[in-house]
Amino acid sequence: MASFVEILIALAPLVAIAVLMVGFFWPATRAMPVAWLVAIAAGVFGWGMDFQWITAATINGFITATQILWIVFGAILLLYTLKQTGAFDVISQGFAAISDDRRVQVVLLVFLMGSFVEGAAGFGTPAAVVGPLLVGLGFPPLAAVVVALTGNLMAITFGAVGTPLIIGMQDTFASSSAIQSTVTTQTPFSIAGWVAEIGTWAATYHVIVGIAVPFIGVAMMTRFFGEERSIRPALSVLPLCLFAWASFAVPYWLTAAFLGPVFPGLIGALVGLALTVSALRLGYFRPDDQWNFESPAAWPDHWVGDIEPGETADRDGAVATDGGTTESMPLWKAWTPYALLVVVLVGTRVVDPISSFLQSNGVLVWNDILGTGLTNDISMLYLPGASFVFISLLTIGLHRMNGGEVKAAWRETFEKIASPVVALLFAVGTVQVMLQSGAATGTDSMLIVLSQATANLAGGIYPLFASLVGAFGAFLAGSNTVSDVLFSTFQYGVADQIGTPKTIVLGAQAVGGAIGNLIAVHNVVAALAVVGLVGEEGRVIRLELIPLAYYAAFTGILTLLFSYLLFPGVF
């Protein structure tokens, strides 16, 4: 067991991040390099890491960060491409045709459409897609980021077509002969079948706790960005929030239970969006009043960055042509790039020949980094960034862009991607130094020491905190998948040690990995980058602690009830 001093040393980088970003409102571009230096100091003085391992771990983190930056670059490029063509104005009018009410738009765009994008692409793309759409509709950029991060919680557990559970748990458990033997002898499942069961339990948590997710997004908007600064306006759309939740939750849970972890988010969102839009068009669940933000002139400066809300083409939906005249862009044409994006993202992950080709080509690999055995790669063609860029190039012809518009879109993209580079590189570098501290010295890493300290402190009530361990991993790594890789085996071991159902505890881990994305520095920086508001990470994280606390508390209570009272006989 680690000593108290070791626990404090391991905690130091996280304390640095919390104090600098949440306490002093430092931007991630300043806070993360400091946290990286603190992690290095912890690695050297607490774990005896040498220069070789620190450098290799940092390089490994930089490679992972580059994967994220590739995705962010593609998302920003598509955003500015559509901004140049005026498509965002047309899209805005399309949603206005359903409802001009900002509360209704949050339910449709953030909860339902965001969940669909998460199920198709993962990698933090929902905020990259939905955030700019909200800004195009006239939302304050800070409000757009805050609500965009909250809305797709239920889909994050299954990520991009099941990746977090398939890679994070199934592949991890399959590599352990001890776990594989226990599962196959004590249950009727293979490892894949058992992980599907874990996914069903995770979906069960989400269906119960997630009943408030659509409402939370609306309530945070009205409370922190409304003129009244109250949740009272959100109560008017509570029936709509509950209907949208039910329309999503039922097919979502049934898909998880009977089809496995690949498509719950996709199918739940598709059915939910179809049912909710249809109900609204028929006149059901529409609020009696109309809610909007106060005049932009009254907004605090930190609400708006480099991109002005509604900063696209003319309000009548006209877009410039090569000849300098204007023509009306049909709604289908404005939406076509996003529709094609979804098709491409799903196709590249579901159609095996395409997926295999992309994963085996265009891959930049660094094997045995500095002789440490660490290996990492960048799948340039398979990562969603390639899909974003591909659709951006198609849009040039589809929307008949001229050379000046294309150059402007690419120029603005490079300008906007510059800010998050430093933050992302050092954020992931910090995580890797902490993660590889154990491999470098043949001991438990800083992350494992912190998790074990949590388990030892909690004892028999550990299930109450199981989801927080998952959230901790996602907060550090910015990925539900990485959280599952880091902590699923640990959660299995703790559950086995204290005699609680392993399947139920691991379901809580899968949920925790989702809620940790709310405050993951990577995701927050990426979401702020695409709306031109890098530097407000601390404010966003402080607000996102509200839904995180709600979700973690109720998931923890359910985990205790399931483990000791309702389903103690589950494996």
CA(first)-CA(last) distance = 27 Å
How many beta-strand segments?
4
Radius of gyration: 23 Å
List the quaternary state of the chains. Answer: single chain
Number of domains: 1
Shape: globular
Uncertain residue segments: 312-326
Mean pLDDT: 87
The secondary-structure element order is HHHHHHHHHHHHHHHEEHHEEHHHHHHHH
Helical stretch count? 25
What is the helical fraction, as a range of percent? over 70%
Strand order of the largest sheet: 1-2
**Largest beta-sheet characterization:** 2 strands, antiparallel
Percentage beta strand: under 5%
| Estimated structural class | mainly alpha
GO molecular function: lactate transmembrane transporter activity; solute:proton symporter activity
Membrane topology: Multi-pass membrane protein
Subcellular location: Cell membrane
GO cellular component, one term: plasma membrane
Give a topology summary:
Blueprint: H1 4-23, H2 28-47, H3 51-85, H4 87-98, H5 102-121, H6 125-137, H7 141-150, H8 153-156, H9 163-174, H10 177-186, H11 191-209, H12 213-225, H13 232-235, H14 238-259, H15 264-281, E1 318-320, E2 326-328, H16 331-350, H17 352-360, E3 363-366, E4 376-379, H18 384-398, H19 403-441, H20 446-458, H21 466-477, H22 480-498, H23 502-515, H24 521-529, H25 537-566
Antiparallel strand pairs: 1-2, 3-4
Structure commentary:
The protein is mostly helical and 571 residues long. The chain has one domain. Helix content is 72%, strand content 2%. The protein is built from 25 helices and 4 strands. The strands form 2 sheets. The protein has a two-stranded antiparallel sheet with strand order 1-2. Strands 3-4 form a two-stranded antiparallel sheet. A hairpin with a 5-residue loop joins strand 1 and strand 2. The radius of gyration is 23 Å and the shape is globular. The two termini are 27 Å apart. About 3% of the residues have low confidence.
